[in-house]
Design a protein that fits this description.
By secondary structure, this protein is an alpha+beta fold. The chain has four helices and 14 strands. The chain has a single domain, classed as Penicillin V Acylase, Chain A. It is globular.
Length: about 240
């Protein structure tokens, strides 16, 4: 939810996300297969609002949510709908990009989405007033850190950690990227990849999808309880 990487390595797409959340929030439900508008969608579910921060559909399209848009915003007292439910509205549609153009987001808290659809990569943003759609190069590697938790300087540090990591690893795979997300700057519990801010805000899980031709594997690591869940399927 708050740190995301996209890596294209040896024609395999690896998308990894760290979820930073208040520990008082109800424990998330491990990834399962749900039916949304007659489409199979795999995702870990937020037990509080019923949405998700990471979803993969039966066609190997992926949406990952980060809180905040371009700059840190001032939160309102209430919002119309959880951002995680917006993710499900999009992933459950016939086309994420087309639904993004149609969907009404008034009174939804600002967010950023990393979208991989039909083998193309996009960054979608809602800043509370305007939508932004940017197509990115899916042949390059990318990292995002949530603007609500990390200052511009820290986000730059994290981007440099990612660049250094990628430059030091040839033929990087999902295990390498899990280790990057799990252990990078692990002594820095304030701004490392896995945080623990006063036992109030912590990195609770790491979720990762690996798309290899027509095979998809979804991995979910519950860091609090040291649990691992794996879902895999073939795209027909």
């Amino acid at each position: 939810m708050c740190t995301v990487t996209f890596v294209n390595s040896n024609d395999r797409i690896i998308i990894t996300s760290n979820r930073d959340e208040k520990i008082a929030r109800a424990k998330a439900i491990e990834p399962k297969n749900y039916l949304i508008n007659h489409k199979k969608v795999f995702f870990p579910k937020d037990a509080k609002a019923g949405g998700t921060w990471y979803a993969v559909d039966e066609n190997a399209n992926v949406i990952v949510l980060l809180n905040g848009a371009r700059e840190k915003h001032i939160r309102k007292d209430s919002y119309k709908k959880s951002r995680g439910l917006v993710v499900l509205d999009l992933i459950g549609s016939d086309s994420i990009l087309k639904e993004w153009q149609r969907i009404e987001l008034e009174l939804i808290e600002p967010f950023t989405l990393v979208v991989f659809e039909n083998l193309k990569l996009y960054q979608l943003r809602w800043d509370g007033e305007h939508k932004e759609t940017i197509q990115l190069d899916e042949n390059k590697n990318h990292i995002w850190s949530s603007v609500t938790l990390y200052s511009p300087e820290i986000r730059e540090f994290r981007a440099n950690w990612f660049t250094k990591f990628m430059n030091s690893h040839q033929n990087v795979d999902e295990n390498d990227l899990y280790n990057f997300h799990r252990h990078t700057q692990e002594n820095d519990i304030e701004n490392g990849l896995v945080i623990n801010r006063d036992n109030f805000l912590k990195t609770l899980s790491i979720t990762q999808s690996v798309i290899d031709k027509n095979k998809v594997c979804l991995y979910h690591y519950n860091l609090e309880e040291d649990e691992k869940f794996v879902n895999s399927f073939i795209v027909i």
